[in-house]
């Protein structure tokens, strides 16, 4: 049937994206003030209707993405190309209000803090006075984040400062300025994922067409998109033999968000395997040295100070239900005492130690040639997310986008599970940025249905047929 063709998927997804946007104008993460009469709460009835429309649109978008991927895995082709489809799905979101998160208001407020001379690593957005730039954005910062210092690096804060300077801190144009950064991140990711994957459409499908990516990086403007884009660009350059430039770009990614540092371990493996012999140790260490120098220079030039190195743990104090270690620690703490925090802290640290061990094991397998280093990096980032003390739905994209790049990544059995996981996590957060109980119920239903689909339809690799029997996973040789 036409609706199951790539053309049908394109228009079904575009309709879904449009519905998400229209619903978001009534039920999105609207500013408390500064919406210019366009982005303002319009009553509970209209908000409820907007939320229903946004959820319906999201479902259409997910169905279109799922079927599009099945066609690609089965060896089908899109006459107009995956980039054309991406354009149609992204276009409605460009002028949408902030969706699924209030983080963009924190970004704007933190950029204003830098511009106004406040210590962004010593205080939260609440420090902005009513007459200062960014005060309207600070009023819309959600919950705990109002008094939380910035956990972001200097490169991102300089970009946020530039947006505030260009827009005068006015909420609506500043949000659109941050969306331009998100769109630039999207373009960088598309360029990067097409490199190691040989230009295959499936890599773009898994990474950039992913509804989880569209609603949280384009709609929600999370700076994770910029970190991922820079990190992937650095990996691509290293794979192509330009490891010095690649390491420098990963260093820049670290000054957006610190998890990008994990990539340096696998860049070291790439270089060490290429050099071999007595030079292997130098190849393993030098990418980290280059990235460290770049991060240091960027911090000095930004003038924001090195406080970002000490604020990396501030988010751990905010409980997120998706963090397994936080949930387990809280449960054990309540079971054995009145104050659960000490036990919770211990379990969180143990989780990070396990994550370090898993990452180290993956790096060792990559060094031995048992796994593609790019795939190893993707799995390492997924392990880090799974065992972190704070987990947000879009954090999964760190690993998903890297897995899409890998030689045997996007159409593999692990990627099929990431499709299911991505689909489930899109429902966890409401367009307003809240995490209602029914969001977890919807996510659970989608996860169960997805796992059942995986049993009935087993992906064996791109172009091998969506129902092919699962064979040994191909391993890309380190280049």
């Amino acid at each position: 049937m036409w609706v199951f063709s790539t053309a049908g998927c394109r228009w079904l997804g575009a309709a879904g994206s449009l519905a998400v946007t229209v619903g978001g104008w009534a039920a999105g993460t609207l500013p408390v003030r500064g919406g210019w009469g366009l982005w303002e709460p319009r009553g509970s009835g209209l908000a409820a209707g907007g939320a229903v429309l946004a959820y319906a649109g999201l479902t259409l978008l997910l169905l279109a993405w799922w079927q599009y991927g099945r066609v690609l895995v089965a060896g089908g082709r899109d006459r107009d190309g995956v980039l054309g489809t991406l354009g149609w799905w992204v276009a409605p979101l460009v002028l949408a209000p902030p969706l699924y998160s209030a983080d963009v208001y924190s970004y704007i407020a933190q950029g204003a803090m830098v511009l106004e001379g406040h210590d962004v690593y010593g205080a939260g957005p609440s420090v902005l006075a009513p007459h200062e730039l960014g005060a309207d954005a600070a009023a819309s910062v959600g919950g705990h984040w109002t008094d939380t210092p910035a956990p972001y690096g200097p490169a991102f804060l300089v970009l946020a400062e530039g947006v505030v300077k260009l827009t005068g801190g006015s909420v609506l144009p500043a949000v659109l300025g941050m969306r331009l950064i998100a769109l630039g991140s999207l373009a960088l990711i598309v360029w990067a994922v097409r490199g190691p994957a040989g230009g295959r459409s499936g890599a773009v499908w898994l990474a950039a067409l992913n509804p989880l990516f569209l609603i949280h990086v384009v709609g929600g403007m999370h700076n994770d998109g910029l970190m991922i884009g820079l990190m992937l660009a650095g990996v691509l350059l290293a794979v192509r033999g330009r490891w010095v430039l690649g390491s420098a770009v990963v260093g820049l990614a670290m000054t957006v968000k610190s998890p990008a540092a994990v990539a340096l371990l696998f860049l070291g493996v790439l270089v060490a395997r290429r050099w071999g012999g007595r030079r292997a140790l130098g190849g393993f260490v030098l990418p980290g040295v280059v990235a460290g120098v770049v991060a240091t220079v960027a911090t000095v030039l930004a003038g924001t100070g090195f406080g970002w190195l000490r604020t990396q743990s501030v988010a751990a104090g905010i409980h997120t239900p998706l963090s397994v270690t936080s949930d387990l620690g809280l449960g054990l703490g309540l079971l054995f005492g009145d104050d659960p925090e000490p036990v919770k802290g211990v379990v969180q640290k143990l989780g990070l130690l396990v994550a370090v061990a898993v990452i180290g094991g993956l790096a060792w397998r990559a060094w031995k040639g048992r796994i593609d280093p790019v795939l190893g990096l993707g799995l390492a980032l997924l392990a880090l997310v799974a065992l972190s003390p704070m987990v947000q739905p879009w954090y999964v994209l760190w690993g998903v986008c890297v897995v899409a790049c890998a030689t045997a990544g996007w159409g593999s059995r692990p990627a099929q599970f990431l499709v299911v996981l991505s689909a489930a996590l899109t429902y966890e957060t409401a367009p307003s940025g809240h995490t209602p109980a029914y969001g977890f119920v919807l996510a659970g239903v989608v996860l169960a249905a997805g796992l059942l689909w995986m049993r009935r339809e087993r992906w064996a690799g791109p172009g091998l047929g969506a129902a092919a029997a699962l064979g040994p996973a191909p391993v890309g040789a380190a280049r």
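The mean pLDDT is 89. Residues 44-73 form the longest helix (30 residues).
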